[in-house]
């Protein structure tokens, strides 16, 4: 019974993230529409609970997002899984400690990688459909301002989630190097 409840919580969390990302955030308007709660939450899950849970969530979220995407099936799944695998690699090789700075750097890297992959896949899809290279080049450079806003607001969201989680759970501890010892 406990296993069923645990499984139900995971499914409910995944569906809640999808509903918020697809049905709520795009219609908020203005700067609120820049939030990508899915990537921020996935990186947070990887840092706090481990990459294995992050990969399972990424797989489930990728499939569900592909059902609602105008891009060919599998593009969101590939993009999100690639982001999580790269985040896992960076977490293991570069950011050994689970700290605020590691979370912010990993979230920033994940957002940059996802936006790059999404733009590439979208551009390839548009090129196959229209054969119009001028539109694709123009569109890629037009997204730079929006990308900076996207990056800033999602990093702020990651910071807010970190601080709320840190206050509520005390899971992250501040560890400082003591240089006074000999």
Helix and strand layout, with pairings?
Blueprint: H1 2-24, H2 37-49, H3 51-67, H4 75-93, H5 100-130, H6 133-169
Helix pairs in contact: 1-3, 2-3, 2-4, 2-5, 2-6, 3-4, 4-5, 5-6
The number of helices is 6
Number of domains: 1
Largest sheet: none
- Name the helicity range: over 70%
| Percentage of β-strand residues | under 5%
User: What does the radius of gyration come to?
Assistant: 18 Å
Give the overall shape, derived from the CA principal axes: globular
Tell me the structural class: mainly alpha
Provide a descriptive summary of the structure in words.
This protein has helices at about 1-25, 35-50, 50-65, 75-95, 100-130, 135-170. The chain has about 180 residues and is mainly α. The protein has one domain (about 1-170). It is globular.
Quick recap:
The protein has 182 residues and is mainly alpha-helical. It has six helices and no strands. It has helices at residues 2-24, 37-49, 51-67, 75-93, 100-130, 133-169.
Features:
single chain, 182 residues, mainly alpha, 0% strand, globular
């Amino acid at each position: 019974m406990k296993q069923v409840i645990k499984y139900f919580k995971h499914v409910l969390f995944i569906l809640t993230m999808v509903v918020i990302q697809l049905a709520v955030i795009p219609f908020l308007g203005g700067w609120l529409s820049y939030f990508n709660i899915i990537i921020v939450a996935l990186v947070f899950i990887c840092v706090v609970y481990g990459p294995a849970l992050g990969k399972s969530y990424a797989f489930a979220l990728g499939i569900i997002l592909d059902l609602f995407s105008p891009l060919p099936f599998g593009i969101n799944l590939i993009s999100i899984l690639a982001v999580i695998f790269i985040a896992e690699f960076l977490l293991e090789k570069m950011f050994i400690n689970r700290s605020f700075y590691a979370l912010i750097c990993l979230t920033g890297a994940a957002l940059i990688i996802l936006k790059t992959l999404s733009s590439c896949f979208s551009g390839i899809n548009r090129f196959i459909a229209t054969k119009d290279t001028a539109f694709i080049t123009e569109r890629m450079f037009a997204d730079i301002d929006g990308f900076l806003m996207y990056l800033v607001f999602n990093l702020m969201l990651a910071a807010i989630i970190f601080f709320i989680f840190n206050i509520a759970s005390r899971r992250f501890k501040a560890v400082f190097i003591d240089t006074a010892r000999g």
